[in-house]
Amino acid sequence: MGRWIFWGCIAAAAILLALSLGAIHFSLVSMARFMRDFIQGKDPYLEQQIFLNLRAPRVFASFLTGGILACCGYFLQQLFRNPVIEPGMIGTSSGAAFGASIYIVFGQGIAWLPTEAGFFISALLGGLIATLFVFFITGFRKHPSVVVLLVTGIAVNALFTSGIAFVSYLARDPQARSITFWGLGMFSNAHWFQVITLCLLTFLMLIGFNHAIKTIKILQIGDDNAQLLGINVFRFQVFMIFFIVVLVALCTAFFGVISFVGLIIPHIVHLRFKVTYENSVWKVWLLGCIFLVLADLLSRQLMSPVELPIGIVTSLVGVPMFISALKSRLWK
Amino acid sequence: MEVVQLSYKHIIQDFSFDFLPGKCYLVMGPNGAGKSTLLHLLAGLIKPTSGKFFGLNHQHDYFNEKNRVVLLQKKLHDVLNLTVEEVVAMGRFPFMRQESWGLTEQKTAQQLSTWKIEHLSSRRYHTLSGGEQQRVHLARVWNQLEFTVEHGVFLIDEPFSNLDFSVYLDFVHELEKIKMSKAYTVILVDHSIGPVFRLMDEVLVLNQGTCLGACASENLTELSTLLSKAFELSLNVFQFERAYYLAMQR
């Protein structure tokens, strides 16, 4: 219990730190004043507006996105018993990015579709197609080997990345620039609608995953044995992958491709903490949240006042992690 | 349970047999005869290319009832990062909704002591030796058995490969209890004639995917003939002071 309070405090501290630091620094006192003035309904003023409409949604959006991506990565790894895969590696993210970039260039004229919905639908379709593609190539085998899945992921990723390049070649300049930025992920456009959506999804995800982890645990004794214990393994896997693709596509539609979160966090949790299957979801989720808030803070602060895309920061941490995970698995 | 003209690719061809409830069957045959495949088919893990299964009295719902078929596999799967107790407790998963957590724990503890692995209960599964892992799986599978089940089917695939003598005798003792309860039809695949043979009612000899023949286990002459035919060797099963032995010659 004490440990949970400790990690809760760390999460709160990370959020507060991210709220206060930035192009303009806010002290705790001024943050409290903004909130008070907002609740009392006083006339908005510039600093308050910056805090409430730019800084706060951004921090909470990165917090929730981190949790979702980390959990999705963790579940993919458990489903495939493969420690080096994450949503970015089986094509989900790049497919979603491709779908969304098509929407940026060609879809903006569709008047009856709200922009957010259009983004989400095109990203979801792209993500589903890319993920299906990977599984089609691996032949829907229940557990493709680490290497097969990786190589297939690389091929599909390359295909969809070149698709994105093609679309941005067709695009006019402001669109092309936004595709480039968005391919690396950024939280600077986050707003409250997205935060509320993510909140609801996180709630659903935590309930769903905490339920599914019992089945995941049984799957560890092999698909055959799990089936004899009354689990429909194929249906479970298809359902889980669909759920994960929806979650990842939504995050990608909102904030672009943020790679490696789903890889780093489960890896750290397994290396550093004693986990049982029962409590692993919460640990992975909370650590993912903290990690992405801090990564976003870093992306704002490293080259201030210029903002780095967050994908660059996560890759900087993620690539060494990925190599070490791969090494421990393949060169044993 | 009756199986009619079961075929699976070229491995099993036109296999028909009527397994009577509560009886124990021993399946023997040379390597590659399709023994393990037969068990997988009976467990419903693979779908037959053709053929039919019938439940007792020709009901068609052989696979529809849950928790009835229990299988102990030959090839053990690597279990990642779970303790022995967790693996054994998994056997109770199908009954999790019906029974309390306390009962699950109690039954798990009982199996741990039956198979003499209490001292390993908090060890990680993958740190154990082959024989110990086999005992963990025995405990898990036995944990899944319910003596109140109707017309259960218990399939066992070469369980003795890693076991020492004392566990072998425990196994025979536990299997005898199952036979007494008459809840399960037991189908055991094994290569030798050992202490477990005295529990068997009938022996099926499999060769190249077909049932070469079946005979009552008391009929040792017929069994010897069948085995000799299947293995193309001169095999002789005989009884000496209540124990059964197998002699072989080229």
Largest chain interface and its two residue counts?
A-B, 13 and 23 residues
Strand order of the largest sheet of chain B: 5-6-7-3-8-9
CATH architecture of chain A: Orthogonal Bundle
Low-confidence stretches of chain A: none
Distance between the termini of chain B: 37 Å
State which percent range the strand residues of chain B make up. Answer: 25-35%
Q: What is the string of helix and strand elements of chain A?
A: HHHHHHHHHHHHH
Q: Roughly what is the average pLDDT of chain A, rounded to an integer?
A: 86
CATH-defined topology of chain A: ABC transporter involved in vitamin B12 uptake, BtuC
> How many strand elements of chain A?
0
CATH top level of chain A?
Answer: Mainly Alpha
Main beta-sheet annotation of chain A: none
Helix content of chain B: 25-40%
**Could you tell me the radius of gyration of chain A in angstroms?**
20 Å
Query: Which descriptor suits the 3D outline of chain B?
Result: globular
Notes on the protein architecture:
The complex is a heterodimer of chains A (332) and B (250). With 332 residues, chain A is mostly helical. Chain A has one domain: ABC transporter involved in vitamin B12 uptake, BtuC, CATH 1.10.3470. Chain A is 77% helix and 0% strand. Chain A is built from 13 helices and no strands. Chain A has helices spanning 2-20, 28-40, 46-80, 92-106, 115-137, 146-170, 173-184, 192-219, 223-228, 233-255, 261-272, 277-301, 310-330. In chain A, helix 4 (92-106) runs antiparallel to helix 7. The two termini of chain A are 37 Å apart. The mean pLDDT of chain A is 86. In chain B, a hairpin with a 2-residue loop joins strand 10 and strand 11. Chain B has a domain at 76-148. Helix content of chain B is 29%, strand content 27%. Chain B contains 6 helices and 11 strands. By secondary structure, chain B is α/β, with parallel strands linked by helices. In chain B, 37% of the residues are buried. In chain B, the strands form 3 sheets. In chain B, strands 5-6-7-3-8-9 form a 6-stranded mixed beta sheet, with helices on both faces. Chain B has a 3-stranded antiparallel beta sheet with strand order 2-1-4, covered by helices on one side. Chain B has a two-stranded antiparallel sheet with strand order 10-11. The A-B interface holds A 81, 217-218, 220-222, 224-225, 227-230, 277 and B 40, 43-45, 66-67, 69-71, 73, 77, 79-82, 86-87, 90-91, 93-94, 140, 144.
